[in-house]
Structure formats: structure tokens, C-alpha cells
Amino acid sequence: MLAAACVLSVAVGSLSVPPGQVWQALSDPSVHTIAAEAVRSRVPRTVLGLLVGAALACSGAIMQGLTRNPLADPGILGINAGAAVAIVIAMAYIGLTSAAQYIWFALAGAGLAAGAVWAIGTGGRGHATPLRLALAGAVLAAVLTSFTQALLLPHAQLLQSFRSWQAGGIDGARFTQIEQVLPFFVIGAAMAACSGPTLNALALGDEIATGLGTHVGRARLFLAVAAVLLAATSTALAGPIGFVGLIVPHAVRAMVGADYRWVLAWCVVVGPLLLLVADVVGRVITRPADVQVGILTAIIGAPVFIGLLRTRRLGEL
Predict the structure, then answer these.
(1) Phi, psi (deg, nearest 5) at residue 174
(2) What residue ranges do the domains of the chain occupy?
(3) CATH number of this structure's domain 2-311
(4) Which one, of 166, 139, 187, 316, lies nearest residue 241 by Cα?
(5) CA geometry: angle at 185 spanning 220 and 47, to 5°?
(6) What is the rounded CA–CA span in Å between residue 25 and residue 128?
(7) DSSP secondary structure, 31-97, as one string
(8) What residues form the membrane-spanning segments (predicted)?
């Protein structure tokens, strides 16, 4: 299904191109027709969809295992909002214009937001619970979103570009941009690939995890860095795309069970599948204009998540 989605992502778009011309555009670089250029522009878009879909799905799975909160994802925990604030500051006050330039701001903003959510959730009496973390993330996201709008008010020229980025999309992808931030994806993916056994141990509880030889503090820090790195890099390139990190891990658990080694592996497949299908649908439903993929993932993801809530009991992870 993922292979078929990749083929559709290259072959189908807002401009209708016959299959023969699609193949000609990909196999003969000397052809420079409008159709050929349109087809070639879809290749980096497809690659970015693969990267962002896998990164968001794995980030959501790690966050859910780390916080033992079935509703955790980069949007609900305020990580997207933190990255957005930092990117607006970079755009409005420093003059940065590309993802490769403000990736460091996205990472810093996402990291600070994650740290603030954890500090708020663990402050006061008691310890961090899934409910406290979700409430802390929702409140912080609302505050940061309002702060972002306040920063944009005196910079009207940035409103249009920021609105397009805020909707979440992979259109306009370029291999040069992807290459510049690819190391962050690779590092995050490598950390996620090592996270399965640790998440399985933490799922048993801190005391049992400690008895099995896991240093809980170090493990949580490692997992948090991996999740923030994947989410922030995706947000810097494609904007705050929602629901991928929330529903994909649940859908995967329904298929393969709760073993995080399998959950993370299948998130790499199902996340890109959802994102690419949503992107293809967004290209054809309003031809010749495109609907941002972030809008489509919300439209597709909300009913799916409601269905999961109705059919499965989502307790602490």
C-alpha cells in the first residue's frame, strides 16, 4: 500500500498528466514541458512525505510511551506550538527564510516547550500523570499560539507565508532543503530505532524498569530528545501537521500489539502511508488548487480516532 501511495503521489496531482508522459518525465531529463516539470516537482514532495510521515508517527509513539498518555502527540503536548514561536521569531526578527536556517530555532522552541510541559506536569503535589501532562500541554499550546499571533501582528508581510506554513504541507519541497536537514532526521531515526526495548521496560512501571536494569532518568531524557528531534525537524520543514503522531501509533497497536519494537517499525510504514494518501486527495479534490495536507490529515484523522475511541479502551500505556 505504501508503494502504491508513492506511485500515486508522483503520478497524480492538480495537473492531470497521462501515465506515458509521467514515465517520460522521469526517464528523460531533456524533456522540459509543463507536464514534465510538474511530475518532477512531485518527486521531492513524495520523499518529504515519507520522511515527515515516519518521523511524526514515531515521535507520537515515543511520546505516548514516555508519558504513558494515549493522547500524547507533538500538537497536544505543545511541541508544535513551541517550534512555531521560535520559527516566527527567526522569520520576523532575524530575517531567516528557509527551513535549513531556522531548524535550530525549531529545535530550541520544541525542546523548551517539552521541558515546560514536563515541569508543569510534575510540579506541585504528586507526580506526572497522563492527565496532568495533557492539560499542561493544552494550556501551553494555547498560550504559545496566542503569543505567536501577537508576534505576527506588527509584521503583516509574514502573515501569508506563516498561514501557509501553519496549515501544514509538503508542497514546494526541494531536495536542497531536504538534504540540509536530513542529518536531523537520521539522528532522530537512529535514536527511535533503539527506543523499543526501553519503552517496553517503562511500560511495566518505573520500579520494574529499574529492577530490569534501566536507568529511568536517562531513559526518559533519551526518549524525549528523540521525540523532540523528530517532531521539530518535521515541523520546521512541513509545518505543524496534526493527527499523524496521534492516530498512527494507535492504529498500529491495533494490528501488531503493544510491543514497541513492532510499533515503531510499523509507524515507519503507516505514517507515510497516511500522509501521502492525504496529500494526493488534497491535490485532486479542488483542482487546480491544492489543499494543504495538514487540513486533510485532520479531516481523515478525527473520524479514525473517534472510531478507535469507540472500539478500544485507551488506558494508560
Answers:
(1) -135, 140
(2) 2-311
(3) 1.10.3470.10
(4) 166
(5) 140
(6) 54
(7) ---HHHHHHHHHHHHHHHHHHHHHHHHHHHHHHHHHHT-TT--TTTTTHHHHHHHHHHHIIIII---
(8) 43-63, 75-96, 102-121, 133-153, 221-248, 260-285, 291-309
- pTM, full prediction: 0.89
Print burial letters for 76-93: b (CB count within 10 Å at least 16), e (below 16). bbbbbbbbbbbbbbbbbe
DSSP assignments along 167-216, one per residue? H---TT--HHHHHHHHHHHHHHHHHHHT-HHHHHHHTT-HHHHHHTT--H
Question: Pick from 275, 295, 305: which is nearest to 45 by CA?
Answer: 275
Per residue of the chain (317 residues), what is the pLDDT tens digit?
Answer: 999 999 999 999 888 888 888 989 998 888 888 889 989 999 999 999 999 999 999 999 999 998 888 878 888 888 888 988 888 888 888 877 676 677 888 888 988 998 898 888 777 665 666 677 778 888 898 899 888 888 888 877 777 767 777 777 888 788 888 888 899 999 999 999 999 999 999 888 888 888 888 888 889 889 989 999 999 889 888 888 888 999 999 989 989 999 999 999 999 999 999 999 999 999 999 888 888 898 899 888 788 777 766 765 554 45
Closest C-alpha to 274, from 314, 230, 310, 305: 305
Which grid coordinates are listed for 14? 492538480
Please choose, from the candidates 293, 249, 295, the residue with its C-alpha nearest in 3D space to the C-alpha of residue 271. 249
Which DSSP letter does residue 123 get? S
Q: What sign results for the dihedral spanned by CA atoms 121, 125, 128, 130?
A: negative
Q: CA–CA separation, 99 vs 48, rounded Å?
A: 13
Using CA atoms, how far apart are residues 118 and 105, in angstroms rounded to an integer? 20
